[in-house]
Recover the amino acids of this structure.
């Protein structure tokens, strides 16, 4: 296990570059990072990546939740050596960071998930493969060697497909299954609606499906739903969309177009990819099909955390999907202490939603999270610099957390707790 970059090493790297007239190619300030990525992305891509539900009150709540907590540094604690390592699900990791599952990364960079995988592997940060990836999980895993990877599951309407996806994740060395609970229906995302743009309808972000044998069997054997029967306008835009569908389908685009498989794949995906009928009892099916640890992502209520324990899951992730699902929902960090208290260390509690800096991660870890997931910032880095851009973002998070830990008088994440924070 490689020791992560320290804050002093990261500072030295940047300042020595400055002596030679070099400034960071990827902005370090989170607002500048997003702005630079926005200038590079298409309108549709930025809306999809950066946007939230409704008028984005939940995204605002995620950020103000961090502002409600203030760090109380302690002095003279001998912090010359800091330890960012954690123990999680029976394995030691060199830092508490994960890369959150984010789909359709081809909208940000042509190398998409592959570039992220290489960056994550280089820094030994677990990458949670998205169920809505632009590249099949097998190809992404091949870029990572023995570096840690997990798999995010969107539970579809077809349990055979669910079992197939999980089985594939096991075969490629994923160490956990992260079930996203808060997206059984797509949230009211105003930015996407104003653009009238959903990438899946262009064949983007469905590579896990078109590469899956069960999904392919479904295309050939099951009747299509209402989407197939809908009348379509034939114009230049619709023809371009058909071309995009074909280009994203495995094999030759012309063959996919002539056979109709590219269109059927999109139609069938739209009909099956979410399942609002899920209940707690369905978790037994997943447990019967995998020996991997199962984590539930999207927990915001302490009672749901208790139910997760009752149903035998191995961990939970406190999250509101980065504010993308319910407008006006509570900030994820607001609920973290209550959920940690409810769980009482019976299973690990992880966190995402709103993390923009290493100092943010410090607060979440002090409030009881065992690990935190980085989301949009690494996608902005991907947009600006591919693999190298993601690496720059990761080094900044590691450096910031390391310095915040030391300057707060704490040597190790094992001793970090709420005593280092106060509410306003």
């Amino acid at each position: 296990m490689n020791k992560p970059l320290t804050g002093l090493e990261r500072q030295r790297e940047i300042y020595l570059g400055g002596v030679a007239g070099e400034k960071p190619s990827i902005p370090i300030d989170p607002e500048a990072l997003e702005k630079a990525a926005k200038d590079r992305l298409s309108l549709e891509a930025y809306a999809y990546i950066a946007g939230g539900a409704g008028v984005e009150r939940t995204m605002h709540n995620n950020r103000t939740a961090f502002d409600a907590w203030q760090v109380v540094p302690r002095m003279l604690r001998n912090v010359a050596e800091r330890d960012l390592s954690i123990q999680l699900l029976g394995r030691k990791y060199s830092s508490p960071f994960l890369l959150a599952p984010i789909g359709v990364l081809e909208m940000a960079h042509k190398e998409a998930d592959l570039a992220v995988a290489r960056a994550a592997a280089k820094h030994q940060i677990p990458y949670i493969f998205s169920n809505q990836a632009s590249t099949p999980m097998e190809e992404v895993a091949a870029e990572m060697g023995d570096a840690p990877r997990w798999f995010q599951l969107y539970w579809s309407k077809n349990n055979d497909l669910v079992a197939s996806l999980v089985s594939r994740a096991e075969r490629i060395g994923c160490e956990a299954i992260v079930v996203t609970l808060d997206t059984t229906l797509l949230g009211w995302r105003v930015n996407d609606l104003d653009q009238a743009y959903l990438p899946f309808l262009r064949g983007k972000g469905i590579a896990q499906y078109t590469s899956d044998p069960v999904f392919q069997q479904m295309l050939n054997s099951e009747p299509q739903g209402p989407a197939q029967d809908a009348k379509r306008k034939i114009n230049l835009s619709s023809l371009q969309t058909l071309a995009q569908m074909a280009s994203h389908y495995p094999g030759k685009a012309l063959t996919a177009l002539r056979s109709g498989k590219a269109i059927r794949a999109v139609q069938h995906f739209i009909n099956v990819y979410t399942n609002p009928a899920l209940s707690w009892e369905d978790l037994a099916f997943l447990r019967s099909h995998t020996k991997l640890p199962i984590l539930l992502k999207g927990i915001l209520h302490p009672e749901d955390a208790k139910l997760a324990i009752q149903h035998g899951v191995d961990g939970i992730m406190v999250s509101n999907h980065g504010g993308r699902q319910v407008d006006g929902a509570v900030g994820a960090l607001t609920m973290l202490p209550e959920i940690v208290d409810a769980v009482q260390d019976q299973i690990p509690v992880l966190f995402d939603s709103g993390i923009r800096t290493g100092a943010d991660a410090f607060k979440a870890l002090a409030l009881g999270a065992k690990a935190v997931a980085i989301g949009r910032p690494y996608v902005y880095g991907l947009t600006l610099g591919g693999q190298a851009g993601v690496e720059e973002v990761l080094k900044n998070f590691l450096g910031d957390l390391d310095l915040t830990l030391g300057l707060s008088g704490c040597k190790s994440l094992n001793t970090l707790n709420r005593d280092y924070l106060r509410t306003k």
Remarks:
- Residues 207-272 form one domain.
- The mean pLDDT is 94.
- The first strand starts at residue 69 and ends at 71.
